[in-house]
Fold:
Amino acid sequence: FPVTIRADQGLIMLRFAPDSTDHDPNVLGIVQNLLPVRDGSWQSPNAEETNTYPNIAAFTPRSAYLGVKTDGTARLFVGSTSQVYEANGIGTGWNLRYTFTGSPQLGLSFCQIGDTTVMASGIFGDSIQYSTSSTFNTLAPIKAECIATLEGALACWNVVQGGTTYQDALLISDIENITNFTPQSDGSSQAYSVRLQDVPGAGTAIIPFRDMLCIFKRQGFWIAQYVGFPEIWNIRLVSPGVGCRGKDACVVAGDRL
Structure:
């Protein structure tokens, strides 16, 4: 892509030129250690500045998650269909944090609420788990394919509750009380539940974006916004034809989804 250089901004991208030749003198064809930002770009950290962790014997990772706590420290997890390990933080090894009794099928889903890391292992896995220090413990007797957090609440999408599978159900905990999923008509609990059936199929992904939750099926896209009691959450269908194939196929990049 053609660029211009300003001393105070680094490289300023003018436009992309994907069809240029390898020998075009006005185009940068191979770029390393460059992070694009809104008004330019900056050099990325060098490879040697990151830790390289040893392999885990007989372990095939299916998911990874980096959670940042309120004090700025981070926790790095990797999970398979049988176990979850956490990096020890100094680049020398891994600590076993959880062993599944169920059978996760589609990878794990994580989110961070303050200093609490929450993990879901799908409708064939275990109940939702949480961890504040070392091991994981059961948060609620609910299984979920996807989880996300917004407004201090925990949202669970495509769930098993009470032994019954609801692949089109969205459960959202009480505000600032992620263990309470029981709604109360007087507003004493703002837990919320709804089945999204405008579009057929199972829930595939959920992700917080700006002041909303973006909720997906393969052929459907909803947004949910917290509006307070008595409605609590306002949910509306954005598109019956646009969706997302899986929980890791949608990300937030700056101000874009």
Notes: Residues 49 and 91 are 11 Å apart (CA to CA). The chain has a mean pLDDT of 86. The first strand starts at residue 3 and ends at 6.
